[in-house]
């Protein structure tokens, strides 16, 4: 079985990180490397990490989540690399299903699956059966909710060798920006299996308004792939985005099922 490296960026998530660690261990995968890149947590994170001698961890000030993931990639020795945040979890049998896909498809470089969005207590808010799209579709994130979600994505080490690390100028759409570079060269292969959970809570970056933080980062990444302003390609994407702005609601949630949860969370 190929060595899998799991990278977990962490900062003051002691309330959740042990559940993340346990979800990796519960895979019972025989060839595993788990790296935790902590940004100098001041809560009980380090105390928790010390309970798990199999984890290779580093705690020092960094420049944020993207920088932490990049540090992990540079330390990774696995053939297959996954990234799970310190408040998310993997679901049962995820690693085996992912590896089966890598082994079944010749030259497979990227595998991703389905996910559950959960609240602070682990209650499922909604579920997404993901699907892949090609480069042209992924550029138009506003038209195609491509539903690729970061904790479910596993890549062959050669992808980082070819495409490079995450762009550290991005703080919300660093995964999307990287996927755009990846999909130009590699196909994304979907597995019909719930791979991971994605947790919503008040301290998570995902709680931030999409319009204020996430969408500007996504637009910045997308516009890098529109082409020169004097080309028909540029205006095709620009007009498509403008049509999206005209019909969208003023405030957008990740999913309509979050409306009640978001209202309650803001009032607590």
Tell me what you see in this structure.
The chain has helices at 17-25, 45-49, 65-75, 94-104, 135-139, 157-163, 174-183, 210-223, 232-247, 259-266, and strands at 4-10, 32-38, 56-59, 80-83, 89-90, 110-118, 124-128, 154-156, 188-199. Strands 1, 2, 3, 4, 5, 6, 7, 8 and 9 form a 9-stranded mixed sheet that branches. It starts with a strand and ends with a helix. The model has no long low-confidence stretch (mean pLDDT 91). It has one domain (4-207): Spore Coat Polysaccharide Biosynthesis Protein SpsA, Chain A. With 268 residues, it is of the alpha/beta class. It has 10 helices and 9 strands. The protein is globular. Helix 7 runs parallel beside helix 8.
Strand content: 15-25%
Kindly provide the name of the CATH class.
Alpha Beta
Uncertain spans? none
Please compute the radius of gyration using only Cα atoms. Answer: 18 Å
Morphology: globular
Number of helices: 10
Helix percent band: 25-40%
First-last Cα distance: 46 Å
